Amino acid sequence: MPELPEVETIVRGLRPRIVGRVVEEVEVVHDDVLASPAADFRACLGGRTVQDVGRRGKNVVARLSGDTVLRVNLGMTGRLLPVEEHAELSEEATHPAVRLLFRNGGALVYDDTRRFGLLECLSSEAWERKAAELGPEPLSPTFTARRLHEGLARSRSPARSWLLDQRRVAGVGNIYANEALHGARVHPRRPAESLSRDDAARLHRALRSVLRRAIEARGTTLHDYRDSEGDRGAFARSLEVYGREGEPCLRCETPVERLVFGSRSAFLCPACQPEAP
DNA sequence: AGTGTATCCTGCAGGC
DNA sequence: TGCCTGCAGGATACAC
User: Fold this and answer.
1) Which residues of chain A have pLDDT under 50?
2) Which residues of A are catalytic?
3) Residue A264: strand pairing partners
4) Rounded to 5 degrees, what angle do the CA atoms A138, A144, A149 make?
5) φ and ψ at A223, to 5 degrees?
């Protein structure tokens, strides 16, 4: 669910509310969202101060004292809800899985209906090693059209599968992959290596554009996604193909088609995005 | 190297 | 109302 723009929105809201707080107690409601046994997770976090909250790909990355990192992957339905006082929490939390209780009151609740998310407490060094396996940040200045073209050229995967692979580029999920491909007029099934330099340049531009606009709109809420204030994102109304099967393409009126491959839906305009280049 | 499939889990919409 | 199927912003592991 949450892709780069949603995670970015969550992180921005979270940062001012939890930096400086000290984790006093860790309540584990469902240990299946933890990467390690609950006792290890508690010991890893207990007593530490939150120093910063950032994002890498779709991961929320909280840096804590003692060179410790809490990585949160929100899966499909994960939410991070800062709560001011113990007493009246859980208003938003319908499926709390983990609660970090702060010294002097307040908490950060990890809520996750489907529990596909993952919380991992690890050393800075261990986190850096993992982060190095992720592809470049698509909004970083070092992610150039040329670099994208070079990456695509080495793979026969369908372009959409390529975009979803976090080792190739970090943070793109099914919504923005489909939107970017439509913006670039590239069929989602086109082999990555078949994209010309021009195709790659359009894809680069479309991807960055859609991610930036979605961040401005505070993300896309289809069902579950809420930011750290509990608010919905506004980008759903700006989607051009995702979820619009049978509706007219906004560019040419041709009905949007849905395909399934890689066990996920792909949405495209068959006129704007021809399968053959 | 790539693809198809299954798995984790819950909720919702739609058909009957 | 109930029961069924299919579907969902993700990630991973497996066999072929």
Assistant:
1) 89
2) 2-3, 58, 264
3) A261
4) 100
5) -135, -75
pLDDT number for residue A40 = 96
Cα A205 to Cα A35, A159, A165, A191, A218, distances in angstroms:
36, 15, 19, 19, 20
**Separation between Cα atoms, residue A40 and residue A19, nearest integer Å:** 23
Asked whether A168 and A228 are in contact (CB, 8 A), the reply is no
Question: Distance between alpha carbon A78 and the CA centroid of its chain, in Å?
Answer: 11
User: For A32 and C12, how far is CA from C1' in angstroms?
Assistant: 15
- Residues within a 7 A CB radius of strand C: A 1-3, 6, 57-58, 73, 75-76, 114, 116, 164, 166, 173-175, 220-225, 260, 263-265
List chain C nucleotides near protein: any atom < 7 Å from a Cβ.
Answer: 7-12
Residues in Cβ contact with A175 at an 8 Å cutoff, skipping those fewer than 6 apart: A3, A220, A222, A239, A242
E strands present in chain A: 23-28, 50-56, 59-64, 68-73, 78-83, 96-102, 107-112, 118-123, 257-261, 264-268
Burial A43-53 (b: 16+ CB within 10 A, else e): ebbeebbbeeb
pLDDT of residue A225: 86
Single pTM value for the model: 0.96
Amino acid symbol at A246: G
Place of tokens 């890689």: A262
Amino acid identity, position A122:
L
Distance A59 CA to B7 C1' (A): 22
| Alpha carbons within 13 A on the beta-carbon side of A118 | 9
In angstroms, the Cα distances linking A206 to A29, A73, A184, A190, A192 are 41, 25, 6, 16, 16
